[in-house]
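Changelog excerpt

This revision adds worked examples to the README so contributors can see how folded entries look when concatenated. The first example is reproduced verbatim below.
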Amino acid sequence: MKIVFSKQIIKKELGSKPNENDFIIIRKWYEKWVYESIKWESLPFGSRLIKVYATTVSWARRIVYLVDSESGDVFFLFLRTKNDKIGSNITIKNPEFKKKLQEYLVILAKDLENDNFNVMELS
């Protein structure tokens, strides 16, 4: 299994010069497998959407992943503070989240098609 990072989404979520530690945190929190599913009928076939509350003493973030149910591969989508418009309410009922999710799924598909992504192995 692996975690896939779309280069365009990374730039939008982590900036043009992401810190290597961000990637480690994103992988680490996924591997803890303490998550909540986000239900939405418009997800790509054979996938599920999950969010993780990545909270420590020094910060609180929300991470969203798309998981391919067949391969187990994971696709990073969001890393947000709980205080921004998306991170405060990561549900399909939040129009900000839904709009950005739709945008990111298109970006992810294009980046996968164009080999514009990085991969990290999961433990």
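The second example, added in the same revision:
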Amino acid sequence: MKKFRFPLHPVAILREHRQARTREAFAAAVRVFTEAEQQLAAKRTEIRDFENVVNGGRREKFRAADEISFWDAYRRVCDEEKKSEGVVQQARTAMEDSRKIYLEAHRAVKVIEKLELKARTAHRLGVDREAQLESDELSGLRIARRLAASTVASS
């Protein structure tokens, strides 16, 4: 029985390495995206806190200097929120791009795996066919010997 040798094995190794690299890049992009979302959530919480402080301060005394400083800080936090939204959008786009690249690499690996499976199946069938031919040949030889022995015995 001859040993199976897949001629595209080096290609399979290269594609598996590429898939591993793209998987790592995708995981890094997911981490960046989740961190950006967490920063955005923190900014939104900070905005709600500012709104509560401003609304709570209006119930008591009105101090123009305090209101101005609160509104400046509130606008700054709102601007930071807008920037954070932009960062989240960029991170989402980068994550989707790296996801697409990873899926392409994964498909390429699957194609090679299917080709290898087909080649292994064909090899197994060929080996089984050879074994069957050998078995048939041995059976034919045995029958020929029996016929020869019976012809010699009857003569």
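Reviewer comment on example two: The chain has one domain: 9-154. The CA atoms of residues 57 and 66 lie 9 Å apart.
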